[in-house]
Design brief:
Blueprint lengths: L4 E8 L5 H6 L4 E5 L2 E8 L2 E7 L11 H4 L4 E6 L4 H18 L4 E6 L17 E6 L4 H16 L2
Parallel strand pairs: 1-4, 1-5, 5-6, 6-7
Antiparallel strand pairs: 2-3, 3-4
Length: 153
Amino acid sequence: MDTAQRKLCLMGDPGVGKSTIAACLDQIRDERPGVSLHRWIHAGSEFAVWDSGGRSLLDTLGQTFLAGADGYIVVADPARGESLDTARQLIRHAFELAGRRPTLLLLNRFDGPPPAALPTDLPDDVEVRVASAARCDEVLAAITSLAERILAR
């Protein structure tokens, strides 16, 4: 087993399903002021997923939350345009504050139809996936893809 722990920062607007998505990974959970930690084991490596909970962190996104991150998971609701705008801003701010990292933009479709079009105005290293937080298999497939990108670095 790889002893190095990888850190993933989970971000997005309130109500987009971040905590539900993180619950799909719940092998071990630890509550801390302002953040929930979800620990997930993949391919013998431990990932700590820092969940910002009901906050978007857009105004308070700081280096403390992002420090040491190996990757970012940004969640958006494709039915809410402002949610996609916030996701774009969060990605940009994270890259500016803590550097480019493998990033997953997870469009949570809440069991509705998939979005008609995926965002195309993102940096090349941002993977866009559509999943339903209610379907952990879809969520795990998307996050596993991000984990593989991190482990391959």
